[in-house]
Structure formats: C-alpha cells, structure tokens
Amino acid sequence: MNVIEIKDLVKIYNSSEVQVKAVNGITINFEEGEFTAVVGPSGSGKTTFLNMLGGLDRPTSGSVKIGGTNVWDLSSRKLIDFRMNNIGFVFQSYNLIPVLTAGENVEFIMHLQGKPKKEREQRTRELLESVGIGDRIKSRPAKLSGGQQQRVAVARALASKPEFILADEPTANLDSTATSGLLELMAEMNRKFKTTFIFATHDQRVMDKARRIVTIEDGKILKDERFER
Amino acid sequence: MLFSISWRNIWRNKVRSLVIIFSIALGIFAGVASTAFMKGLTEQRIQKVIKTEISYIQIHKEGFRQNSDFKGYMPDAAQLVSEIRKIPNVTGVSERIVVQAMAATAETATGVLVSGVDMENEPEVTNISEKLLEGEYLKGIKKNPVVIGKKLAEKLNAKIRTRIVITLQDTANNVVSGLFRVSGIYTTNNNMYDESHVFVKAGDIRSLTELPEGAAHEIAINIDDNENLPLVEESVKKLATGYEVLDWKSLRPEMNYLTEAMDLYMYIFIIIILLALLFGIINTMLMVVMERTKEIGMLMAIGMNKTRIFSMIVLESVLLSLVGGVVGIVIGALFAKWKSTSPVDLSMWAQGYEQLGYDAYVYLSLEPMMLVNITIMVIFTGVIAALYPAYKALKNDPADALRIE
Lengths: 229, 405
Known about the structure:
Radius of gyration of chain A: 17 Å
Distance between the termini of chain A: 20 Å
Oligomer: heterodimer
Structural class of chain B: alpha+beta
Mean pLDDT of chain B: 90
Helix content of chain A: 25-40%
Number of helices of chain A: 7
Number of domains of chain B: 2
CATH superfamily of chain A: P-loop containing nucleotide triphosphate hydrolases
Shape of chain B: elongated
Number of strands of chain A: 10
Order of helices and strands of chain A: EEEHEEHEHHHEHEHEE
Shape of chain A: globular
C-alpha cells in the first residue's frame, strides 16, 4: 500500500536573474515499511525533495499525497498539525531542544499532541530503552555524544507514531561506530514498528542498508532500484 | 512544558539574562522606593493638616464657613459633643468658638482667626499643645492667656507675656475688646497657618462676647483610623441633623487632590521607567529569537504551531521581566519597610520643605495595592516587549531555518 504518492513535483527557485529548477518533475510512490535512501550529488535536489515531501517547502507545482491527503492543499495551521501527527523528522545536526532532557525531548511532541501524562512517560521510557539509551533519560543533549543525541532524535521522531520518518543526512556528523549503531537501530525500528524511513544521504553505509535507492540528479529521478536485504 | 521550556531558556545565556534582570530590578526598585517616598510625604502632610489644623470631621451651622458670621453658632454644641463622644471609633471631640478678630500689640495690628477652645477636649482633636516652641498651652498666665503662632509673634513682635488686644464683634454686633497675654508660641511649620490662627480659652471668649453657655461655632472630631471615616461620618450626620458635617477631604479639598495627583504622578513615573526598560527587553528578546532561528524552525517542523511559538516567546519575556520586577519590588518593599520606622533625613533642606508644609523627616509608606499594580504593569511590559520578537519568530520559514548551519 502506498503511504506517499508524489506526482509531477516541481520546485523552482527564482533568484534575481536566473530560475533554478531544484526539483524538476518527480513522480514516485513510497510504500508502507520501506527503508529508502534518496541519493545524489550535492545540489541534486535531495533536501528540497525531502522538504516538499515533509510539508516544509511548498512546491511550485505537483502534488504530495500522504495517506490520501494532499498536504499542500492544507492550510498552514492544519499542515503543522498534519506534520506533527504523520511525519517524523531526523536532522543532520540532531536539533534537539537543548534545555530539555533526553526524556523531555521525546515527550515534547506527545505533549503537543495532547497525550495524557502517564501515556507520554511510559512511551518515552519504552522508546529510549528501545534506542538503547534508557539510562540517559534525564541527561540534557549537551551531556550526550553525537550518536546518543541522534538516537534521542530517532526516538523523538517515532514518539508521535508517524506514517513515515524523513531523515536528512542523519549520519553526516557521526563517526563510523555511531553510524553503524544508528543504522542498525533504524533498521530495527523499521522492522519492529513497520515505520517507513526515507533518507537523503551521501553515505555509502546508509545505501548499503537501504532496500530501495532512489538516485536524483538535476532535480530528476535518474534511477530507482530495489534490493532484497 | 511550555512554561518549563521558557523558564529554562532564560538561563541559557545567564549573563545576558542577569544584566536585563538587574536593570529591571533596579528600575522597579527606584519606582517602588520613589512611590513609597512620595506617598509617605503626602500622608505625613495630610496627617499634619488633620492633626494640627482641621481634625477628621468638623460640624458647623450651614453657611458659617462662607461668611464667618459670629451669630452662626450651634446652640446645642455641648450636648452634641457628649452624644458624638459615644460613637465607636471616635477618639476625641471638642467644640470651639471661632471668630475673626483683630490682634494688636503696642507696635502693630493684624487680622486673625481666634479659636476659643476647651482646654480638656482640644488636645484630643488637635496637637497644637505639642507644637509649642516657648511657654505653655493656655497656662501660666492668670487671666486671658493666648497661644499664638511663631510667624504671628514675629509680625507683632510679641514674646511670652506680651499683651495683645483682641478686638471683635459680639452677638449683638457690638465691637468689644479683650486684653490677652501670650502664654505660648507654637509652630506647625506652615507659615500661613501660624500667622493667622490664635487660641484662647473658650470661657474667656464666651464672657467677652456673651455667647450662650453650651453654644459653639465649630465641633472638631478625631477618629482612630481614616478607614473608619465614612462610618463615623454617617453616624455624626444622623446626630447633627440640620448642620453641615464635613470630613477632611471636603474641608481641605486640595489635600485630596494632592493624594490623587501624587498617585497619578507615581504611575506616570513608573510607566516612564517601564518604557525605558521595554526597549532593553525588546533588544534581549530580539537577540534570543535571532540566535534560535534554527531551533524555532525545527520546533515548527516537528509540529509546534504558531500560537505555541508565540506563547513560548511571550512567556519567556514575561518571566524575564517578572523575575527582575519581583526582585525590584521585594527590595523596594523591604527598603520602604525599613524607612517606615527609620525616616529619610532631609533636614539639610528642612527650610524649603517646611515652607511647603512638609516634614524634613519622611517616613516611607507603601500601599500593597500599588505593588500589585506594579506587578501587573511589569507583566504587561513583558508581553508588549515580546510582540515584535515573536512576530519575527513567526515569520521564520522552517525549511529556510533548518538550512542554517
């Protein structure tokens, strides 16, 4: 079943003199439980594509349907709520809230969703334990290593029980040990919760784990390959 | 959780937050201390007028205050005094014979207002007897003692035991004169009052003017607390039907205006302080928002809506202002409390202050309501200061913000 349906997606940046087509007519579907890497050279349009997919960057034309809802038809207020309930984000530089502890960072999104305290606390504990840092629940991000911070970010992304998780270069700031640990973790989460993962990456190690690799160049899909792993 | 984030955000940059908190605290302390000073000054002035000059309530025959006609007396004044004495919260009642007269020494003469007072009752309502510079309060002179103000004594070149001839009209409109001797010289630090008010024994002026026994022109009433004034005034009005019953606010309306004007000035003063602080808080909050562009973008991306972002920034600004405000209020209140028993010494400028009727030693006074109002004003300032920075934050585009390295 398709979780995401993308049709003729175009993004044009208008600078003062030239028009830049960052994404140039992408049509693609993502199914439930996929573990996909979107790859391509710098400036190929990966991040722009992911941002439009995640309801962060409005496309010039085309549509993004998630679970049957055309996200770019939603009002800005509804779009924020839609993102909160359907999409999990993992960023390159972790982007945790520095003043909150690891536990509170994970709990925060459930707080925004209006979940009861007991449920929030229980799910936070479960998620942090499943990403392997249950003992750091009360630590602030500054006290955690890069790998640990990214694990908290994954737990946060999973907290809202989203349809899929978008991860933009999640391993770019991590060493090889942390990277392989994080990839194992995300693969496990993908298997355990059937959550769809879509990565934008340059990292060969991520590509080696992905069961689908979509190669983008000059804003267009160059290759769309699937692997049995 | 929003509160917790906002509170912890304040302490992310401790030095910057402490600088702005210190400046808010200092500004609010200055506002509270000045308010307490001005309030103390005004209250002392009013208390002085009440205790020395007019007392809390006065009763007259209708029209007496306008024309000072000697025949405008209350025949049943003595009886009224004994009835008023029974009203709860009344601490003193005294009747007076009040007459405009000419006071003359061998050297010069001047117009004065003579009050014939009851020696026993009068100290219950006014404290002229405690304001003597020389001599005694209507004592020490066998016949017809008079107490005069320092200013009048200078004008008439009178000293203790100096003879003063007081000339006035009696009930039959005859001009009569009496020879009095100065028994005491007082000062209230109000030159105008001291120059025009003299005190004699009621019995002496009664026999001079043939005013009927028990009659008087004025009844002065003292009470325990200004808060009980409306209650007592109502009871007095019921007893003194047909007479004009006035409280100190009506007797000396300028005193009431003084209180109101001073309150208004104080609020204007605090608003000016807060306005100056406002720009500092706006500056701090703008820096906060600029520094956290990426973080705010991330919060928007993961689902924090604009209302919550706005609330978070407003809350941060309000908490920042409130911390400074509360510190300033507490220090200001403690200072006012200390200076309410140990007065601010302005004796260096005593002459100027006393010319204006104010004391050179000011006991600070603070109304709890004023502190509540200042707190509300500080919160309001915090909200106003956050508006533009919050607007800037909401203008963030999450996709652009997240690209910031």
